[in-house]
Design brief:
elongated
Amino acid sequence: MPTQYRYIPQHKDGHYLDRVAQPTEDYMHAMRFSRQDDLEHWLTTRHCPDAPHRFVIRRVRVDYELEAEVLEHLPEAN
């Protein structure tokens, strides 16, 4: 089972940021980066949230597992 890691910003108060930089309590809706240095860079750009020093970087493990075949045949394209 392949494992990948994603990096998400978490405010020191506990909330995360979603894709449009709005607070969310659910880390599953948090914006995510495939590389830690990409998130670190984002925190220094003009698109970063107010007070970027109040955010920490959290690592999320994502495990991929192929499930049993659900569709035997894909629908034909028109």
